[in-house]
Design goal:
Helices cover 77% and strands 2% of the residues. The chain contains 15 helices and 4 strands. Strands 1-4 form a two-stranded antiparallel sheet. Helix 4 packs antiparallel against helix 12 and helix 5 crosses helix 12. The longest helix has 27 residues. It is globular, with a radius of gyration of 21 Å. InterPro entries: ABC_transp_permease. It is found in: Cell membrane.
């Protein structure tokens, strides 16, 4: 094959991928994001600046990181309500481990990172075991986990905020590389890994199969229980990464940190086109949903809109996304 023919084949392949994305609903979602950004930049010229756009990415970083694992869970037709409490718990457990350390305590800082990740993985594994092997309802299991994780956070901290962590721990939340904030970099890396895992691996294909029809997936030889278990464990790990980033940004661990974060995570995933019925979704769509929520928050703030109305508008966007998903499901029946 000549170089020209190879280039033509690559171009055609790229065109087919773009068309598939447009048909999947990501195209209209991206178009809506662009239109909103243009409208906000006209209404408030300071919106379309590098500092504002960077600020948006930093603000949504915690939600975005947690939403990656949540996307896997929802594609399997599950739900995870414990993510906000788990973000707080992982940060607090790490802070307790590093208590009294100096900024230069590299060993304790690295240990805090591993402790946080292990805590997130453990809670995710407990959720996954209860849902996949004990066959309990995901809503109830993760609701209970949400309450227990928040209660444990308060018990460990005695209701007090813990401050001052080693630099080796805060680097992922407070530092920058080439002028780019680390929270944004970590979020983008997690999204890329999540996209590759979902679209390019056998595990990702199994996630879609389980969400589409568990019985059919089981008959096809897919280890349904193991897949469900691993998705919740993955959600726990991404929640832990979000907890590390949040604690690093604040250089503190708050007992009330990430309160209500689970609703923002689910909202971003649903707005991004992932079906609550399972079997359909994408990491790219979730990323656009996360950015869209951040754009709405910052844009309305720049316009001087009352924060209460901002929350109302967010709720309206979520309702519209759920309604469109329901209508899409009905058309398939």
């Amino acid at each position: 094959m000549t170089s020209t023919a190879a280039n033509r084949a690559d171009t055609e392949a790229l065109s087919r991928r773009v068309i598939r994305q447009l048909r999947s609903g990501i195209g209209p979602l991206f178009a809506a994001l662009v239109i909103i950004c243009v409208a906000l930049s006209i209404a408030s010229p300071e919106f379309l600046t590098t500092s504002t756009l960077t600020n948006i990415m930093v603000q949504v970083s915690v939600v975005g990181i947690a939403a990656v694992g949540g996307t896997f869970v929802i594609i399997t037709s599950g739900i995870d309500l414990s993510v906000g409490s788990l973000v707080a718990l992982t940060g607090m457990v790490a802070a307790t481990f590093m208590a009294g350390s100096s900024p230069d305590a590299v060993g304790l800082g690295i240990g805090g990172l591993f402790i946080a990740l292990a805590t997130g993985a453990a809670v995710g594994a407990i959720n996954g075991f209860a849902i996949s092997w004990l066959r309990l309802v995901p809503f109830i299991v993760t609701l209970a986990a949400m309450a227990m994780a928040r209660g444990l956070t308060l018990a460990i901290s005695d209701g007090r905020t813990k401050f001052d962590f080693p630099n080796a721990f805060t680097v992922f939340g407070a530092k920058a590389i080439a002028g780019l904030p680390m929270p944004m970099i970590v979020m983008l890396v997690v999204f890329v890994i999540g996209h590759v895992l979902l679209r390019k691996t056998t595990f990702g294909h199994q996630v879609f199969a389980v969400g589409g029809n568990q019985e059919a997936a089981r008959l096809a030889g897919i280890p349904v229980r193991r897949v469900v278990f691993l998705t919740y464990m993955l959600a726990g790990v991404t929640a832990a990464i979000a907890g590390i980033v949040l604690a690093g940004r604040l250089n503190s661990a708050l007992p009330s940190a990430a309160n209500g974060l689970e609703l923002q995570v689910i909202a971003a995933i649903v707005i991004g086109g992932t079906s609550l019925a399972g079997g359909r979704g994408s990491i790219v769509g979730t990323f656009i949903g996360v950015v869209l929520i951040g754009v709405i928050n910052v844009g309305l703030s720049l316009l001087g809109v009352n924060p209460f109305w901002t929350q109302f508008i967010q709720g309206g966007v979520i309702f519209a996304a759920v309604l469109l998903d329901a209508l899409s499901q009905r058309r398939k029946l």
